[in-house]
Amino acid sequence: MRYSGFEVIKEGIFGQKGWRPVWRNPDPKPAYDAIIIGGGGHGLSTAYYLAKEHGLTNIAVLEKGYIGGGNVGRNTTIVRANYFLPGNSEFYSHSLRLWEGLAQDLNYNVMHSQRGLINLFHSDGQRDAFARRGNAMINQGDDAILLDCDGVRRILPYLNFDNARFPIYGGLYHPRGGTARHDAVAWGYARAADQRGVDIIQNCEVTGIDIEGGQVIGVQTTRGAIRAGKVGIVVAGRSSQVAAMAGMRLPIESHVLQAFVTEGLKPCIDHVVSFGMGHFYISQSDKGGLVFGGDIDFYSSYAARGNLPMQEHVMEAAMTLMPMIGQAKVLRSWGGIMDMTPDGSPIIDKTDTDGLFIDCGWCYGGFKAVPGSGFSFAHLMATGHHHPPAAKFRLNRFRDGAGLMDEEGTGSQHNLH
């Protein structure tokens, strides 16, 4: 499909009926070299990089629903590389560099907007912690600027700086942070993978994983058995359920994270703003809607919907930080199922079954990790060796305790990261 201004005008006049699908809708073949379970952002990017970087094209991506219907379409679209601990820091830095060239790489406009991210702090202790984080980001090669209160006021004059409980002391500014269009990311990877020969098979649920003699040999699906010598599990909040098909018990709890969007407004918020004391973060989409989210719902669940107490908490945080948005009407909300690990850091690793690989545990960080996760997981599946930026994302750290990356410093509790 070629796009042009003429085609857009023509289709607008004639009812948008002339567009053709930009990826195929193939039936599953009896066998592939590799199968990716999960057609979200991480699964599609893994398939794309397997084909592009490693020349593997006999690949199937199996998605039980439709492309873009899972977590890649259920987030707040934030892209950043502001991590502190070794392991996370180099990985997200690598992922951000991939984001910066993604539109050109995919030849698809993913609407990556580096509008800048500001994490606010509200006490001397928080300021010291953000100063250390900023130094770690700079040492990693990324950007960070520590702002005092006046510095934040010049950039975000509409905030409530004088709140008695949470006065704004300053912020950590990450200019290369920003947002991207979430469904465009899924569509861009799907189109690019399809063009390299990858079969994207929608409405195909995996119901079992076939293993013989300690080696994976394929999967059972609602559309029949499919054989493969390599299988990658990349299913976000459903990781524990799919891994259980291979007899694995993962150190993961699934929790719901809610997000919200308002009616379209004139441009009023130019950056991504994170309010740590209220666990609230907000940006404005290209269509004008305010996109914001809060904390997880604290109880384990596979339901992709939220609850009223957390909605009330998020709205209270919004009004505490920026009362000016109080008249905006919330149009819709959604829930994404987070696969939370005990230390809040992800897993990209082999399993004890030969040929079976796992990519999971992204907690809140799944969307911004899409390019880096796919690149590193493809490297592991193709070569059998860990990609250096993701080398610390080992599964066995939860078995022996070595190499834990507790980014939030909250201890081994899934729902506190």
Query: How many beta strands in the DSSP annotation?
Result: 18
**Element order: H for helix, E for strand:** HEHEEHHEHEHEEHEEEEHEEEEHEEEHH
- Estimated helix fraction: 25-40%
Mean of residue pLDDT? 94
Query: Could you give the distance between the termini?
Result: 43 Å
Structural class, from helix and strand content? alpha/beta
- Individual helix count: 11
Approximately what portion of the residues adopt beta-strand conformation?
25-35%
Radius of gyration, in angstroms, nearest whole number: 21 Å
Shape: globular
Low-confidence stretches: none
Note down, in words, how this protein is organized:
The protein is α/β, with parallel strands linked by helices and 417 residues long. The strands form three sheets. Strands 1, 2, 8, 9, 10, 11, 17 and 18 form an eight-stranded mixed β-sheet that branches. An eight-stranded mixed β-sheet has the order 5-6-4-13-14-15-12-16. Strand 1, helix 2 and strand 2 form a beta-alpha-beta unit. Helix 2 runs parallel beside helix 7 and helix 2 crosses helix 10. 49% of the residues are buried.
